Amino acid sequence: MASIVTRKAVTFINNQTPATITESTLDLDKCYNENEIVIEVHAAALNPVDFLLHEFSNPRLSTKNPKGYSRDYSGIIVRKGAKVAPIWDIGDHVNGMFSHVYGEQGTLTNYLILDPVKQSSISHIVQNSSAAIDVGKKVPDEIEDRSGTKRDDFVKNAAWPLVFGTAYSCLMEQGQVWDKDSRILVLGASTAVSNCLVQIAKNQLHVGTVVGICSSKSLTYNKEIGFDYTVAYDQGDGFIANLRELMKTPEFVGKKFDLICDSVGTSEFFPVIQEFLKPRNENSYYVTVSGNEKYDYKNPTLGNFVTISGPVRRFNPWRTFNYKGIIVSPNQAYMDLGNRMITLGRFAPRIDSVYKFEEFQEAIDRLRSNRAKGKVVITIKE
Ligand SMILES: NC(=O)c1ccc[n+]([C@@H]2O[C@H](COP(=O)([O-])OP(=O)(O)OC[C@H]3O[C@@H](n4cnc5c(N)ncnc54)[C@H](OP(=O)(O)O)[C@@H]3O)[C@@H](O)[C@H]2O)c1
Question: Any idea where the Enoyl reductase (ER) domain is (predicted)?
Fold first, then answer.
């Protein structure tokens, strides 16, 4: 491989400038230090957090430097520093979540340079996972991708690290113990985060009952993925009334949830939470990955996120329920679990659509529609 290459990246400067492709020259033999690897990126996936970061980069407050887009990636290691651990070698196929806020690099680029110790959400991708031995509940291939198109390993493996890690944090970081009697309620069953959460909960943790709230159009889709029950938010008198009806059925009488996980942003449950969530002293939790309000992906505002109610709910000594806002951070544990579950046929990353690098704006528009079912992936190396 030639040492001098053209680096292409999707970047933005501030909220007055659109995301655009920028090009620069990169010397592959000189662009990394002794602790870093260089990854030739084959695919990357979008996440709504970039819409927020782009929207909030006020020209008066942010630097004039180009800022990278996206976090999920898959690709091949093409260079490594002398002090990089031997587990990472040139030619290895890897995927991961590159963590940054307004970083110079994002993952919508053809070359990503990182220190695998600091950016610890990295793993070797499972190749030809369909050939793996099935010792768990097999996730049907046909629901892996709504378009039915077979996706290559790079596309599949760019599609899960960030949302899988977020779902893992919701389930595993509160010290909750899961078994067949456990009950989880998911607000926003159709989101990419919830896709992962239900697969981990049902196929790996053997949680007895997972209920999902979604649009009436998505009820069947979410049942196919693994939710035991789905409840519509856009029918009848709304999701609380619809959930109350479900709670009257024999399976639910006298039972409450151990965990309510919000992946859309809602406050509607708080006034009635004791009807649905077990008492605090049973280590029940309300966790949110999206804050207090559903934000408009096309026009997010700071007020959607910066509230005093979150810290008050979490730290108030007289609180009646445990509350936590989840922010995914780099962690090897969820990468290992994701790969293990893919190998055993217990997890299939959900892909909504795949776009070419030059079509990045269409990909962004698709995710901004807030109708994606699974990840929007961009292929970088053709
Ligand atoms: N804290 C963190 O570290 C972290 C990490 C990842 C993501 N997030 C946040 O988590 C949220 C979900 O992200 P994502 O990428 O998983 O979402 P996504 O895949 O973009 O979610 C799209 C889905 O949301 C559903 N939806 C739209 N409006 C809804 C509503 N009012 N109520 C319930 N569902 C609705 C739609 O399905 P229906 O047909 O059911 O409407 C749609 O298919 C975002 O707010 C994102 O910023 C946070």
Answer: 16-378
